[in-house]
Automatic annotation (TrEMBL):
PROSITE patterns: AA_TRANSFER_CLASS_4
GO biological process: isoleucine biosynthetic process; L-leucine biosynthetic process; L-valine biosynthetic process
PANTHER family, per database record: BRANCHED-CHAIN-AMINO-ACID AMINOTRANSFERASE (PTHR11825:SF44), SUBGROUP IIII AMINOTRANSFERASE (PTHR11825)
Transcription regulation as UniProt keyword: no
Keywords, in A-Z order: Amino-acid biosynthesis, Aminotransferase, Branched-chain amino acid biosynthesis, Pyridoxal phosphate, Transferase
Protein's name in the database: Branched-chain-amino-acid aminotransferase
Pathway entry: Amino-acid biosynthesis; L-isoleucine biosynthesis; L-isoleucine from 2-oxobutanoate: step 4/4; Amino-acid biosynthesis; L-leucine biosynthesis; L-leucine from 3-methyl-2-oxobutanoate: step 4/4; Amino-acid biosynthesis; L-valine biosynthesis; L-valine from pyruvate: step 4/4
Top-rank EC class of the record's enzyme: transferase
Cofactor(s) listed in the protein's UniProt record: pyridoxal 5'-phosphate
GO molecular function, one term: L-isoleucine-2-oxoglutarate transaminase activity
Domain of life: Bacteria
Amino acid sequence: METLTFRRDLSQQPKSETERAEILANPGFGNYFTDHTAVVDYSVDAQGEGSWHDARIEPYGPIALDPSAAVLHYGQEIFEGLKAYRHADGSVWTFRPEANAARLNTSARRLALPELPASVFLDALRELVSVDAAWVPTGDGEALYLRPFMIATEPFLGVRPAREVSFRVIASPAGNYFGGELHPVSIWLSEHYARAGRGGTGEAKCGGNYAASLAAQLEAEAQGCQQVLFLDQFNDNAVDELGGMNVFFVFKDGRIVTPELNGNILHGVTRSSVLEIAKERGLHAEERKITLQEWKDSVADGSLAEVFACGTAAVITPIGELKTSTGSIVTPAAEGEPHWKAIRAELLGIQTGTVEDTRCWLTRLV
Ligand SMILES: *Cc1c(COP(=O)(O)O)cnc(C)c1O
């Protein structure tokens, strides 16, 4: 197993305690960043051998890139997203990071970027969170969002996989995503745009997929919706996912259904955790194709109980309505405590250390 020692450059004055306290009092999402960043560089030598090197912690700040850097022209970029949670005893933990390390490498293979040893991925998280531990929030529903990413830095305009690459991790304090109360969201059905297609990059976590989703997101906002749903129009209008969250359906007879990993959709860590928790709670989990027509029919015949979206940033968000150009599919009002609430509470409890971690999903960082 490859190990690299992270050199620490702590020369720059960190933000003052007062400034940090002000930020932590109302962090929002993705607005502020901690004092440092983790970096590991990759290059291919004259013999064609690639290696990761120069692992370091350095002050957070702008990246100097050559204007011809490949990432700026051909979009060779991938990323990850996970959180660090502060437990009651002050220790800091993260959730299933080995799944993120594995997914980063799945994305890397698809974007012709070099794979990063999982041990280096984990060390980068641990090093960064150790140095910036004061930035891990303590409030209910708050966490330090970790954003690992990999970019092609080689200055070269020819089209081929870059031979110089940089892996980095930045960290951003994240508040309680919905300020406590969870309101069902309205989502817009994208009928003209797709975020992924067969053989495309749908199951890679890459910036390009997000760029491709933005025109649809604008359409959604113009319709008063918060998110977009993408379908596979060439596969009976099968439900794929939202721009950045996986989708679940719960039926009154106890089935919980989510689209199967068909190459178009992202292998969400939250998705797989929800499936496991749901099974243990006695729900019958199915990973399969679910079409827009089935969604409509199951509302019409009264068999559908809940629809929700899930992902690391917002955990679980109930979907109240799917708006389309020809009408709306409204999720029926809940009868009693919905399953999504209980699943969400269990997941958050495990992450924040108030529910026993029987599946060894947590890894201690500090
Ligand atoms: C990151 C992401 C998700 C959610 O994945 P998690 O691992 O649960 O955070 C879902 N869909 C897309 C397109 C994503 O990029």
